[in-house]
Please model this.
Amino acid sequence: ITSNLKNNLLFASDFCIGLDEFLNSDIIDEKDKPIFMNVPEKLRVIKATFASINVKNDNGEYVRCEAYFYGVYNEDGELTDIVGSAKDCADKTLPPCGEKNSDKLTGLLSNECFYHNIDDALRNGPERNYAAIMIGISGFNYISQLYGAEFSDKVLRYIAFNLKKMELCKQGFITHFAGDSFGLFIKCDADLEILGLIEKIKNSISMYRHIPLKYTFGIYKTDNSSVSARVICDCANIAKESVKGHHLNNAAFYSEGMRE
Model:
């Protein structure tokens, strides 16, 4: 998809129609149309943005897609065109998240089941605020090199066990990603609630045997069912990476400027 801002045209695959005509059609779901109207404003501030939208396929069915929009700028830095692409991200049906959908090392939800539960909560649960929190263990590679894989696996299991015991985590979803990364998805009404959980993690899971444990945290807040779980977690991970190596500030909330 490309949209030329000067003549207000939008091109998609093998057809070319006016943007107004496109927005008045049923190609995209009615509730997703405001997303397109907000794209130019966002791209005047950042170089790329994204959203999850429902797009009608050749069978006349709406399928979930991840749409990415990129700005094209002139020599003066002014936005002149928008280029977009969409990738099918339709839900895969998963059985109930039991033993087969658990991480073998930690017993937490598998990544796919974690994503599935997030999408389900956002689309079918009550409307409210949620937060994805990505957790990284600072210096975990050093621990692995110094003490070996078996010891580092015990560290991961210890962290997973203690995360599952926390009240706020019990009400949400937890997974272990590859290496030293964990993911949480929780209901939250205020930033202080999120920061309180982070402090609790830092203070109550601060040591395994004689090894001090330090963490980095990335947070993405959402109440928007149009954003997919994978995008939500990607954003939280970008926020986490932004504070990697920072000793004083080890937690960050995601902002669009972090993608630049």
Observations:
- The chain is about 35% helix and 30% strand.
- Residues 1 and 13 are 7 Å apart (CA to CA).
